[in-house]
Design a protein that fits this description.
Immunoglobulin-like; alpha/beta; 8-stranded mixed sheet; 25% strand; 2 domains
């Protein structure tokens, strides 16, 4: 896996500034024109067979099917769209023939109601134009709906919604390859169109097991946590993975994580969640934990483990944000003086959250960084604001990536997890 500090150093060179930053500029322009339409089929459990949701675009007097997706197991659906006018319909495909037939549950959003997504120019929006929280009911057979599109046009079919809510996968699946981690950093719009984002499960939800949420860092994917997951007691814990484009602004990422966890909680009603994060994922996780508590959510997050997190930001990211022809959006939040980092420490972690901070110190000699783990400077890993709230601070002779496979880390991590089970059994 490429180290983010090396990437930043390379990006400052004139050799790469032409091609990489030209592509990045185009990506960010595309990203700024992306919005989300999302909702839920309220009575999806009553339907027989998988539920498909159809997004229609409206241009002048013509209505055209644009995208078709299956709902998530939770009944939720989501689409990535450009500014325009849209409407929604859905049906349960009881006979799995990929077409609506008489006798199958079906419905529309509204009468149907039109959903308008204005452009930023028209509405002065700053990616606030998302339309979420829509609710649709599927009506029992009997109502004739004759204008569902043929699903022969496979280009319309996306299979998965934009937001993944407990999609079951394996860590060795191609979706988690390192190339996609880099894609999410340099081409976030392409990442979203290709992969979406959200929380993945390795197995169906089990109310008897405690969820452990893993959050990767910049250029990362969930596969980096494989050694920790392999050593985990899977009879007691169920690993979940937040997968997202790591080049996006961190406030947006943490908000998306919060909303995704809330949707899963509303479906599965879990009352305990443990959080484990690597690198920049620790910053995302701390912001999420604070927002989750602030919105009054009842799930008890009582363990937060951060590994090699740049708690004080990155001076290299700050330089990149100021001097590069086009900045990766997350560089702005990694600036030690950024509003994001300052706000991160304005209030402490919620009561009851036990934070355990791990850091590596097996770094490289570098003209660009002080003492480091090969990617993050120790000064940032050991920022006093994070240390003063940590229950424990543990240093290991590992670099930024090898620490995830460290026997010492894994042993201590499992001890922390198992101690929670022992306390709950008392």
């Amino acid at each position: 896996m490429k180290r983010i500090s090396i990437i930043l150093i390379l990006c400052m060179s004139t050799l790469l500034s032409g091609c990489i930053f030209k592509d990045l500029k185009e990506e960010l322009a595309e990203f700024d024109q992306n919005y989300v339409i999302a909702g839920k089929i309220s009575n999806h459990e009553q339907a027989t067979g998988p539920v498909l949701v159809i997004l229609y675009s409206h241009l002048e007097a013509k209505r055209t099917a644009q995208q078709i997706v299956f709902t998530e197991a939770t009944g939720d659906f989501s689409f990535l769209v450009h500014p325009g006018r849209y409407s929604l319909a859905a049906f349960s495909d009881a006979n799995s023939n990929m077409a609506w037939d008489m006798g199958e549950f079906a419905g529309r959003y509204g009468a149907p109601d039109e959903i308008a997504i204005p452009s930023q120019t028209d509405a002065g929006l700053s990616n606030d134009g998302n339309v979420t929280g829509l609710e649709m009911d599927l009506k029992p057979p009997g109502e004739t709906l004759t204008d569902f599109p043929s699903l022969d046009d496979t280009s319309l079919f996306e299979a998965k919604s934009l937001v993944r809510l407990g999609t079951i996968a394996k860590l060795e699946d191609t979706i988690f390859v390192q190339e996609n981690g880099s894609l999410g950093y340099w081409k976030p719009a392409t990442f979203l169109k290709k992969l979406g984002f959200g929380i993945y499960f390795l197995e169906p939800f089990d109310p008897e097991k405690i969820p452990v949420l893993f959050v990767h860092g910049a250029v990362g994917t969930p596969i980096g946590f494989s050694p920790m997951v392999e050593a985990m007691d899977r009879d007691q814990f169920q690993p979940w993975f937040f997968y997202y484009p790591s080049g996006v602004r961190l406030t947006s990422v943490s908000t998306a994580l919060n909303e995704t966890v809330v949707m899963l909680r509303d479906t599965y009603h879990f009352n305990k969640l443990l959080v484990t994060a690597h690198s920049m994922g620790g910053l995302v996780s701390r912001a999420f934990i604070k927002e989750y508590a602030r919105t009054g959510n009842p799930a008890d997050i009582n363990l937060f483990v951060s590994i090699s997190t740049p708690w004080g930001g990155s001076y290299m990211a700050a330089k990149g944000a100021k001097k590069a022809p086009v900045a990766v959006p997350s560089w702005h939040d990694m600036d030690p003086d950024s509003d994001f980092l300052q706000d991160l420490y304005t209030t402490p972690l919620p009561m009851g959250v036990s934070h355990h901070l791990f850091f590596g110190f097996k770094g490289d000699c570098s003209l660009f960084m002080a003492n480091n783990d090969g990617t993050v400077e120790l000064e940032s890993e050991l920022d006093y604001r994070a240390q003063r709230e940590a229950r424990t601070t543990t240093g290991l002779n590992e670099d930024h990536m090898s620490i995830l496979a460290s026997n010492e880390l894994i042993d201590e991590y499992n001890r922390l997890l198992n101690s929670l089970v022992e306390k709950s059994d008392r």
